[in-house]
Every structure is written in structure tokens, then in C-alpha cells.
Amino acid sequence: MIEKEKGSENIYADGEVVTILATDDMVGCRLDSFLSNEIKGMSRTRLKSLIVDGYLTMNNIPLLRPSHKVVLGEHYRLVIPELMPALPQGQEIPLNILYEDEEIIVIDKPAGMVVHPAPGNPDNTLVNALIEHCGNGLTGIGGVRRPGIVHRLDKDTSGVMVAAKSASAHSSLSMQFAERTVDRAYRALAYGNIKSSSGNIETMIGRSPRNRKKMAVVNRNGKLAITNYEMERLVGPVGSPLASLLICRLSTGRTHQIRVHLTHIGHPIIGDPVYGRIRKKKSKKRQSGSYRLASEEAHRLISLFSRQALHAYYLGFEHPKTKKRLFFETILPNDMKNLISNLDSID
Predict the structure, then answer these.
(1) What is the number of structural domains in the chain?
(2) How far apart (Å, rounded) are the C-alpha atoms in residues 102 and 344?
(3) Which residue from 50, 105, 211, 284 could staple onto 55, CB 3.0 to 4.6 Å apart?
């Protein structure tokens, strides 16, 4: 049964919201198959893409698995997005360029910039900026939706990125990332005093069984993830540190890897809206990823910090054409430097 919030009775339209009730004749079948049977005129392939991209929800929680088995009485809500241009368009967005030649471009991505167009972020991305800067020659390199992109950083993670400007450069860089020959290092500001000066975190990471929008350390259906960290310095009053400034190096590149791993060892990244939360001083309730601060001033300062305190400060790789090893390093952005300074100044 389909109840359309807008649009005609029989034909769906882009921008329409469709509510679907699972009936007994479809119990046990795949979700994408069920939807293609219920929503006429839309291919199963497109429905599958909408599910994976988070446009289908049940009880306001995205269902991201097209293979989900339909259960009697479940209510699904599908948002059919407006069609976007087939190709990303160039937009004049300032870039902090660290290096550029005919094959590659290296930039220092600011926090708040999305790498490529996706649902909810159709434009104003790094890809749109690169197309404008590099011209039409970039279009199609490595895929029409993500031209030039060989790796990514989360929207609110700042730092060094490299993009390809030719097909051969894209192939070379992609292989280097796949073979783990790229050197990557991050600075992370984590809650609390991490007792060991260095360590190795090796786990399996996969979709959280409790929240499919999050990643988590899992025992099965995950991928190997290895993070090496070392203490750069403690942050906060002498004798009563509030945080640890860490250097984290990746041996693998899983989604949200550093954020998940530091939460796993009890020291989530400051400001992380997904994996790290502040508990109020009087709260005794312990939740995964939460951290209680003894200082009210630290609580105030951190609550004003609007993103995860994570910066990809170092990137090293082989130039696709010259084969020379290149290294790029950037300083901490001002928001992280100011937070560290303010925490250090607490009495």
C-alpha cells in the first residue's frame, strides 16, 4: 500500500515523498525487490541507489541495505530526490593549493568542505572547485561524479589531499592507496590523558549493528583497520591534563577509522558529533563515546568547538610521472590551535 504525500495517485514525481506499508504478500522478500514491485515506473537499480544513499527510512532511521528482508507491518518512507545534473559543475571556490603540475594537484582542504557531490551536498564541494580550477579536462577522470578524486577526508576533517589531473595519474595514485604505499599522518586532539606514549590499535571496523549510519569496532562483517598513534603532548593545566594531542598514522584507510579507534580505547576526538560526546560533570551515566570533563570551563570551550579536532597534516606519495617521492606537511588550522591554547590557559 502506498500513500503519497504529494503528487498523483499512480505516478511518482521527483521531489515526492512516498509512504509504503509492508503487507503479508511481500513478507521475507528483499527490500529493493519489494519497492520495485510497489513503485511503478522506477527501476530496481535506481531504488537500490536511493536506499544505499539514505533516502529510505523506517521510524526516521535510514535503512541502507537493499537486501533487508521485509517484515509485515513495517512502514517505509522514501524521499525521491530532485534530479541533479548528470555531471558536477565547476564553481568558483577558493583553494589553498600546496602544489600543482600537469598530473596532480595537492590542496589543504578546510574543515566544512565536502569532497564530492552526494545527497544533501549537491554542490560547493571540492570536486566543483577542482573542475572550475582545472577546466573541462578534469571531467571524467576516475568517474563522472568524482573526477580526479583518489581518496577523501570527512567534511569536518581538515588537511592535505591530492587529486589527479590525468587518467594515468588517477590510476597510479589509486594503486598507491590500494597498496598502502601512501604515507598519511593526522593530528588528533583526544579527550583525557592517554597513559601510554604510543600504541597500536588493530581491530575490525564495519557498520554499527545499532546505527547503520555509524561505523564501529565489530567482531564480524568488518574490515581490518590498523592505526598507530604517539603522544605529541598533553593539553591543559600542568598536572591536570584535559586532552592529548596525538599523531596518528594509518596502515589502512577505513571510513572514520581514527575517530572510531580513539573512541574504542576510551579517548574520543574532541568535538566529534558522532563518536564523541561530553557528559555533564554530575552525570554518572556512561555511554559509548561519551567523556566526562572535570572542568566547567573546559566543558564550555569544547562545547563551542564545532567539528572533530582532526587534521590530516602529512601526505607522502610517489609522483605518477616522475616517480619522485613527494611529501607535504601543513600546520594545525587556527581553530585547533586556539582550542589548544585556551585549554592550556585554564587554571
Answers:
(1) 3
(2) 44
(3) 50
